[in-house]
Amino acid sequence: MPVFTLTRIELPMAKCFPSSRPKPRFLMLGLALLLGAGGGAAWAQADVIAARKASMKRMSEQLEVMKPVMEARGDVSALATRVADIAEILASVPSRFPTGSDSGDTKARPTIWSDRAGFEKAAETTLAAAQTLRTAVQSGDASASAAAFQALGGSCVGCHRGYRSR
Ligand code: HEC
Q: Can you tell me which residues the record assigns to a coiled coil (predicted)?
């Protein structure tokens, strides 16, 4: 992309104004800087995308571990640290989708940035659901926990419907 911009703009310019030919060394330096900056940014975004996918996966794994306990109406109080882990990740969700992290190996939909308020609201709602679950498991109430667990899962899916491509 930067290379393209340079060749398209600088070369016709050189033809129109032969007296002010761009100095090759200067151009090469500019090109190297642009490529360096662009390449670095792309790498940084790839890291952001990989890290956010890993954090989503981690929440999923936590839910998987919790599921049988919920279904059996088992010892839900033992799950408190897992719920806390999910809540911590959820609180970080908006910051894991910075501008520019919309392309590459990602299923993030453009709606995340075009409807930022809606996206952040979905993250907030899901965090609130995790906090409700946290209170329920801490109280040891298995059926309240099971209901809150369902609600949390539904909230995850709600965001995916609007903001993740299939
Ligand atoms: C505010 C929106 C939002 C919420 C809330 C949310 N997710 Fe996601 N999730 C996404 C988006 C967007 C992606 C796609 C990320 C990407 O591909 O870069 C995703 C991806 C995933 C993935 C796939 C990761 C991968 O390896 O590709 C899993 C699994 C997942 N989410 C689980 C969950 C679980 C479990 C919850 C609830 C505890 C949850 N998510 C809550 C938006 C959300």
A: none
